[in-house]
Amino acid sequence: MISRRTFFRGTTLGLGGLYFAPFLRQLDAATAGGPSPARVLFFVQGNGIYPAEIQPQGIDRKKEPGTLEDRSLDGIKLPFSLEPLQPYAKKMTLLHGLSGRIARGSHNMGFAALGCWPSGKQAYGETIDAGMARQLGGIYPHVGVGVSNKPMALTYNVTSAGRHKALPTVLDPVLAHQQFFAAGTSGDSRKSFDVDTNLLDFLADDVKRMQSRLDGTDRQKLERYLQAFESMSGRQSKLAKMADQISKATPRVDPKLATISDSRTGPTGVFDRLEAQF
User: Fold this and answer.
1) What are phi and psi of 94, to 5 degrees?
2) Which residues are CB-neighbours of 251 under 8 A, at least 6 positions away?
3) 212/48 Cα distance (integer angstroms)
4) What is the b/e burial string over 259-268, where b = at least 16 CB atoms within 10 angstroms of the residue's CB?
5) How far apart are CA 276 and CA 278, in angstroms?
6) Do 120 and 168 contact (CB within 8 A), yes or no?
7) Do residues 53 and 93 touch, judged by C-beta distance below 8 A?
8) Which of 48, 77, 181, 217 is most solvent-facing, going by the fewest CB within 10 Å?
9) Could you please report the per-residue DSSP string of 152-219?
10) Residue 159 CB: number of other CB atoms within 10 A?
11) H or E segment at 227?
């Protein structure tokens, strides 16, 4: 099996052209009680890509295709951007011709890339990655990591679980390491994980005590907080039980990646962050 790191190191453009039929079949298998599906991975390229960059050689690209053509990639040479995937061409589907015009195609459309609604400022619905995460479940149903040339740790402009329910994209590799692998580490990182676990348990108990003194709408409002705290506490408990397994898969991360330079002439560290995220 090709590793994730090897896959992405050689793939600079065009992952948005990979078709999702295999994943949808696995989703059907999951709902029917079949084997657990593989992870579904979305690679979002800022400002999009040029269609010509992912067009197989020898196949003409029509600007306004009027009919659906189903062609085999057997014996077809992939373009430069997809050359690392050439050995796997027989297992791939490239779906071309999808229109994103409904998203209005500006630089600030954000959620529209995976949600196909004409707005970049608000999360009007559920994006496809959040929808699949909801169906697949897991300790972390959705994990979003990214990179920016600005010194930000988080952003909320790609994924949405519903109206006004944007999900975070972690831009700091050090923060991502702490968030997803702390249970399998030792020292200060593990201590911080345990403190967070105890704090969540305390907050959940505190909300329950407050609920016992309230009635009606105030009690219902606190119920949402209680559900959130109990959900996060339950996740911490599951991660703690998997500590040994997590420790075996925990990658190393350079603490220097926590900072990024805003230099316009010298190295900024953006590409180091990009490598670390993959």
Assistant:
1) -105, 120
2) 177, 181
3) 52
4) ebeeeeeeeb
5) 5
6) no
7) no
8) 217
9) -SEEEEEEEBSTT-EEEEE--HHHHHHHHHGGG--THHHHHHHHHHHHHHHHHHHHHHHHTT--HHHH
10) 26
11) helix 216-241
Angstrom distance (rounded) from CA 38 to CA 163 = 28
> Average pLDDT by consecutive 10-residue portion of the chain (278 residues)?
47 39 49 62 81 87 81 89 89 81 70 77 81 88 89 88 88 88 84 86 86 80 81 86 87 82 74 83
Q: Which residues contact 265 (CB under 8 A, 6 or more apart)?
A: none
Element housing 220 (H / E): helix 216-241
Residue 239 structure tokens: 């991660």
Half-sphere exposure at residue 22, Cβ-oriented, CA atoms within 13 angstroms: 12
Q: How many helices (H) and strands (E) does the chain have?
A: 9, 2
Q: How far apart are CA 69 and CA 262, in angstroms?
A: 47
Q: Which residue has the tokens 């959940």?
A: 204
Tokens of 26: 């696995």
Task: Give the HSE-up count for residue 64: Cα atoms under 13 Å, Cβ half-sphere.
Answer: 0
Angle formed by the axes of helices 216-241 and 188-211, nearest 10°: 150
Largest CA distance in the chain: 73
Residue range 62-118, pLDDT digits in tens: 877 788 888 888 888 999 988 998 998 888 888 887 777 777 766 667 788 888 877
Distance (Å, whole) CA 178 – CA 46: 26
